[in-house]
Fold this sequence. Notes:
Layout: E1 4-10, E2 14-20, E3 26-33, H1 40-57, E4 65-72, E5 76-77, E6 82-83, H2 97-105, E7 109-113, E8 122-123, E9 126-127, H3 159-162, H4 164-176, H5 182-186, H6 196-204, H7 208-232, E10 236-239, H8 248-261, H9 264-269, E11 271-274, H10 281-296
Parallel strand pairs: 1-4, 4-7, 10-11
Antiparallel strand pairs: 1-2, 2-3, 5-6, 8-9
Helix pairs in contact: 4-7, 6-7, 7-8
Zinc ion binds at residues 140, 150, 152, 154, 157, 159.
Amino acid sequence: VSKLVAGIDLGGTFVKTAVVNGQGQIMAKSSRPSNASGGPNAVMDAMEEGVDAVLREARMSRKDLAAAGIGAPGPMNWQSGVVYSPPNLPGWKDIPLAQLMIDRLGVPCCLTLGTGVGGGIVVFGKLLRGIDGTAAEIGHLCVMRGGRQCNCGAKGCLEQYGSVTGMLKTAIEGMQEGRKTLLTELCKGDTSRLTGKMVSDAAEAGDEYARWVIEETGRWLGIGIASLVNLLNPEKVVLTGGMIGAGEMLFKPIRETVNAQAFAVPAKRAQIVAADLGGDAGVVGSAGCALDRLKTGE
Ligand SMILES: [Zn+2]
């Protein structure tokens, strides 16, 4: 394939797009709000605008595109291209996203599971899909029976503890119990305005409570990852997303929890690392999946 592929990383907050060449190099990239509250059409408008914006920046047009790969939140069926009812996209129910984007962009559109606490399990170099294509909902591993209510309808899912949103819930719980912290000042006393950046800024400034919140988030992630390590005996666990900027403050408690919780042999084997691609992993991975499927005809 000599043409270019568009990568679209669809999240509940942002749509990231990129044009990627056959070697997986990014020619141009952009990010815009996904307008999730506007429903499916508003989100697809943002996806289409994002693709056109990166094509313009790369001085290319839609004619240069061979395909688009879309990293979308699950549950979904990657073959039929239908997204069922993602917890973070209100108003979506059984949306034939791949077909609707083919209608808009005029090129084959391939779905793959998006980023977040979730993502992919790669076995023997291939993504583990499951019989209906809904596999690898890692964010909805239960880490606490009867725990926090999740958008998926269940309680105690990893996503409610190990994502940025989960981390903020942990932070707010303690603040409501009266913990002294810089965070109160940073959010001007209104916990609904708290952001992940405020927590990392406070931690960096030496705020003990903010540090504890990040470490606690690492311990929750460690509990989920320990189950994966026992289940799959993976060589590598690659983490991406906004959280990984916290570095060792997050990774140390993850590793300690996995070592304490999982069997010794697979725990020692599994390298728990940050994605090399950082924030670009979603768009490059989505484009790569589209390229693969063009080549193999799957
Ligand atoms: Zn859930």
